[in-house]
UniProtKB/TrEMBL annotation:
InterPro entries registered for this protein in UniProt: HipA-like_C (IPR012893), HipA_N1 (IPR017508), HipA_Ser/Thr_kinase (IPR052028)
Database matches in Pfam families: Couple_hipA, HipA_C
Stated family: Belongs to the HipA Ser/Thr kinase family.
Name of this protein: HipA domain-containing protein
């Protein structure tokens, strides 16, 4: 049986062909046009996938590297969302190529996956009635899609969410045929989650912006009686143009299931933050500015008590000219201040893995390992701490979650931040 193939498009150029020559092993063949436009060795698709005249393949042994699969799997959802798409398409949840063919026209970033011979189009946006939107969001995790609608867009992650298009009249539309979505709507979980999770996520994003840390735009809204956070996609321009990005798992060639870094991995290879900082900063227009932006984002996640700042909750922007910048912060919530059991940093920070154990010296030491001078790192940490402190005082917490500030202040004093 011939291998299934999909055309990989980026910036209106077919940059590669993706195929599955054997079960669960993917292969990427870059096109002559991609090599002509971007050049051999270019990493505009992924930091882990340099463009080459030779095909990039998953290794025979998974532990030896499945960087192609890692990039692709990082575009697909996990959990309930993936199960629903697979069921709707009549596919096994393990059929990566089949799922990608179903939803690959609209993914995170600017990459698109189309059947061979197809070309990207503008798609179309189906206007949703207010009732359809309310039902769609309020009924999650059960997906009651509007009649005749199917999933045609993909976003990584476990949490139940929908991707929609903001319409000029203030309503919402359903993206079809590769139309770019503009917003993510994520309702408050019904069971098994921390109380006030989405409300404090909105608060944390507002605090980041107040502290002059680039962060995704967000607001809260109600759908029927269920509250949700509405997040503006930072990988879409104001005019709907796709902007390319990838998360740290993809950039490091790691499977999404490995999103939490272990101290054993850090001891063997150096911290993930160090590897990202050195790889990405080398391609930034201003390497020092990239390292400082990353240090500010890491410091914010620690101080705000984000116990889920793993490698899929940080991303880089990959620009057409080959340069790299840090993506705005997203998916931040003060989980540690909501429940002290949720205190993992997600990444190893100077050997530390708990929010309540990271000192200023650890943040400085981690940044020094990236190539930042100790003096520069300490000044940057002190400056961003001052901005975060002021922002926390200025941005009001949602009703019922006022205790977050008291818990933050307690740890702030204990850690001498």
């Amino acid at each position: 049986m011939p291998a299934r193939t999909l055309a990989v498009w980026l910036h209106d150029i077919q940059v590669a062909r993706l195929s599955e020559p054997s079960p669960f092993r993917l292969r990427l063949d870059f096109t002559e046009e991609a090599l002509d436009v971007f050049g051999e060795g270019s990493r505009v698709l992924s930091l882990a996938l340099p463009m080459s005249k030779r095909p990039l393949r998953d290794a025979e042994v998974r532990s030896s590297g499945h960087t192609v699969s890692a990039f692709v799997e990082g575009l697909l959802p996990e959990g309930n969302v993936r199960q629903h798409i697979a069921s709707q398409a009549g596919l096994p949840v393990t059929d990566t190529m089949g799922l990608l063919e179903r939803v690959g026209r609209e993914c995170a970033g600017a990459v698109q996956f189309l059947p061979e011979g197809d070309v990207p189009g503008t798609g179309n946006v189906r206007t949703l009635s207010a009732r359809e939107v309310d039902t769609l969001v309020a009924d999650l995790p059960i997906y009651h899609l509007p009649e005749g609608a199917t999933f045609q867009a993909s976003l990584a992650g476990v949490q139940d969410k929908v991707l929609v298009v903001a319409l000029p009249d203030g309503g919402w539309g359903w993206p079809e045929g590769g139309a770019p979505s503009t917003h993510i709507i994520k309702p408050e979980p019904l069971v098994g989650a921390l109380p006030h999770l989405i409300q404090t996520e909105d608060w944390a994003l507002r605090a980041a912006r107040q502290a002059n840390i680039p962060a995704a735009e967000s607001r809260l809204a109600k759908f029927e009686l269920r509250e949700a956070i509405v997040v503006t996609r930072y990988d879409r321009s104001a005019t709907g143009e796709r902007l390319h990005q990838e998360d740290f798992c993809q950039a490091l060639g790691l499977d999404p299931q490995a999103k939490y870094e272990s101290t054993a991995e850090s001891d063997r290879h150096g911290s993930r933050l160090k590897r990202i900082a050195r790889t990405a900063a080398a391609r930034a227009h201003d390497p020092d500015a990239f390292r400082i932006a990353l240090l500010e984002a890491v410091t914010f996640n620690v101080v705000i008590g984000n116990g889920d700042a793993h490698s899929k909750n940080y991303s880089v922007m990959l620009h057409r000219d080959g340069s790299v910048s840090l993506a705005p912060v997203y998916d931040v919530a003060p989980t540690f201040y909501l429940d002290s059991r949720y205190k993992g940093t997600g990444h190893v920070i100077n050997g530390k893995t708990s929010v309540d154990s990271v000192e200023v010296d650890d943040l400085v030491g981690e940044a020094v390992s990236w190539g930042t001078s100790a003096r520069r790192a300490r000044a940057a940490v002190a400056a961003v701490l001052e901005r975060i402190r002021a922002a926390v005082d200025l941005v009001p917490l949602p009703s019922g979650a006022e205790h977050v500030k008291g818990n933050l202040e307690t740890l702030w004093t204990r850690r001498s931040w």
